[in-house]
Amino acid sequence: MDQQGHGQAPAVGTVSGAGQVPYGSAYQPNQSFWQNQYQDIEKVTDFKNHSLPLARIKKIMKADEDVRMISAEAPVVFARACEMFILELSLRSWNHTEENKRRTLQKNDIAAAITRTDIFDFLVDIVPREDLKDDVLATLPRGTGMPVAGPADALPYYYMPPAQNPAQAGPPGVMMGNPNAYAAQSQPYMGQPMWPQQPPQRQQSSSDA
Length: 209
Description:
Layout: H1 31-43, H2 54-61, H3 73-99, H4 107-116, H5 130-139, E1 157-160, E2 173-176, H6 179-183, H7 200-208
Helix pairs in contact: 2-3, 3-4
Family: Belongs to the NFYC/HAP5 subunit family.
Keywords: DNA-binding, Nucleus, Transcription, Transcription regulation
GO molecular function, one term: RNA polymerase II cis-regulatory region sequence-specific DNA binding
């Protein structure tokens, strides 16, 4: 209890003694996290040494054709912003790790944190969920890999010789499938119209009406 006699609510993002994560911890970082970040920013005096290389950040910024000049302070701000981004995403991912009673942060934990957070929607396509891929691979027999194309690629391609009667068939080309099936046909296949044609007399009578 505090000095006024009110019970203090458990901090968001902390794990209770029973091993359960309080409600909202997986969706919202601990409030003390942002307070510590704010205090660290105020205490920063060294602007030359950073965890992330400023040259790499500046190169990424110049990837935009509209960016002409970059001041010396801009990469420093981006470096600090990247550190806070990594820390926040790691905290949200670690909450998912504790929910699954694990002690190792995995890639699917990061994917779950991205899925649960609206501001990380732009990372959904960059970090796919590995559990879906594992389920697909588990259904395949051993020794076979993931198919990279549809069943049409399994059919061989061969050269179709020209027909004996050029008036009935088109020019030669490359065909797909079993060549024996085409060789068994004595006459070339002629396509049939989808809708039956009406007799000329019926068309004339309808036009007169």
